[in-house]
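@channel sequence for tomorrow's demo:
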Amino acid sequence: MNIIKLYDHELSGNCFKVRLLLNQLSLDFESIKIDVFTGENKKDFFKKINPAMKIPVINDSGIILNESNAILLYLSDKYKSELLSNSLEDRAKIYSWLMYNKTSVDPFLAKARAIKKFYPDDKQDLDELKSLKIEGNKSLRVINDYLSTSNFFCSGYSIADIAMYPYIKLSYEGEILLEEYKNILNWIDRVENTAKFIPIY
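structure tokens (generated this afternoon):
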């Protein structure tokens, strides 16, 4: 039996994306914690696994892959998941949203979260945080508008939703609040009611 190794951390939104997909695909996997807070990701053993020293990483029968959204694409493709649609039009939307997630959502929401959740008070750059909030809210407005006419990011639940979910869900930890984004809040409820969903905490 193939057991996928996932190099993981329970507080990482990017790792959660992969854990959620693995659960929803009912794939056997072993979670191997890499403690980034103590620098375990910079140790030689892990640098051999991922020279970029970032998590998540998977090892699937010798195929080693990093970058969370690339892992989502790989797993859903290999295991023929409906979460990567058979429709070319839907896949095009998924690809587009996956890119938008990494250029315009996670960089702002995740960094704001990191500053407020993980940095000591005297290391928090409040000017940077203010800028991250402005840009993060711009992206959330784009998403909220899109979700006014769509339940998910394509015609049904997909890896695009999995990619978007963690840092939007946790945006409050970076002082980016969702109360004005009713369509996003409704989308979060729909995601959390999908089959085999697991809580982020």
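heads up for whoever presents: The first helix runs from residue 13 to 24.
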